Amino acid sequence: MTLSDYIAALAGELRVGPFRRRRILAEVEDHLRASVDERLASDVPRDEAEEAALARFGPAEDLAAGFNRQWRVRTRLAAAAVLGGAGALFITVQRLMENWVQPAPWPEDAAPASVAWQSGTAEACLFAAVVLALGALAGRRWSAAAAGVALVAVALAAALVSHYEVERAALVAGSPTNWQLAGVCVLRAAALLPAALLLVGRLRVPRVLLT
Amino acid sequence: MSELRGHLDLLVLAVLADAPAHGYAVIEELRRRSAGAFDLPEGTVYPALHRLETSGFLTSSWEAHGGRRRRVYRLTRRGRGRLERGRSEWSAFAGAVTTVVGEAR
């Protein structure tokens, strides 16, 4: 195994966030290169120097397991908090706008069919995302798949809520402009980004994409 | 060497108490100070360094050394406190074990 093979193998085994992954790989590569250079300075051939350095460093699986254990706990707590909070906030805001803020947006308290299914689907997505996220954080076997689906569900819900707001604004006088609503969408996406990054850390990245 | 793993955090803090260092230097210093007795796989030190940093006992930054970027770790005030507590606990524990087991004759 060459030094590059080892780094690729480690990248494939790591289940951490993208920033942490980059830092770990850079640190390990720096260590291994220093170790190889030291042997090369003693006139050891490169292939032997790399083999010896890797043998001293230990298996990539063991190293990755050490990092993955730490990351799992942090990811579970942080992603659950962010996703749960985002879901609860979205649902609360939507309910507030529908029921308590006057004037009521829809004629005779009946929302158009498109709005009804959009807001219903968005709420269902958010609810599913929170449940899936908690499931991903609690278990191991399906955690990567559940985290991925939760992430897609949150993104879909955010898109539906944004569309709903645009439709509502078109009907209610004094509503925010489309530009203002676009700003809200950007802020919403930014708020979801930490959860997305944390959850991406839980996904299994195909090794071919990392080499 | 498996019994060493439970004490690795304290050993790393002790090595970094004297001067900031990168991972490679930490593992070399551990080996040197123990006269080769603590000959762990070199990679073992990195999860420990990251764990200690997450706990607030270390800080780290990239620094350039001989045309190469290295992550250098240094002890925080909290880390120094943790090291002092760890030293006291270890002395008490080692003293108690020695009392029970007895000194080598």
Describe the structure in brief.
The complex is a heterodimer of chains A (211) and B (105). Chain A has 211 residues and is an all-alpha fold.
Describe the protein.
Chain A is mainly alpha-helical and 211 residues long. Chain A has helices spanning 3-13, 18-41, 46-57, 60-100, 113-138, 143-171, 178-200, 207-210. In chain A, helix 4 runs antiparallel to helix 5 and helix 5 (113-138) packs antiparallel against helix 6. The longest helix of chain A is centred in the middle third of the chain and has 41 residues, at 60-100. Residues 202-211 of chain A have low confidence and may be disordered. The two termini of chain B are 25 Å apart. Chain B is globular, with a radius of gyration of 15 Å. With 105 residues, chain B is an alpha+beta fold. The chains are: A mainly alpha (211), B alpha+beta (105). The interface between A and B is medium-sized, with 22 and 16 residues.
Write the layout of secondary structure elements.
The complex is a heterodimer of chains A (211) and B (105).
Chain A: H1 3-13, H2 18-41, H3 46-57, H4 60-100, H5 113-138, H6 143-171, H7 178-200, H8 207-210
Chain B: H1 8-18, E1 21-22, H2 23-33, H3 45-54, E2 58-65, E3 68-75, H4 77-101
Helix pairs in contact in B: 1-2, 1-3, 1-4
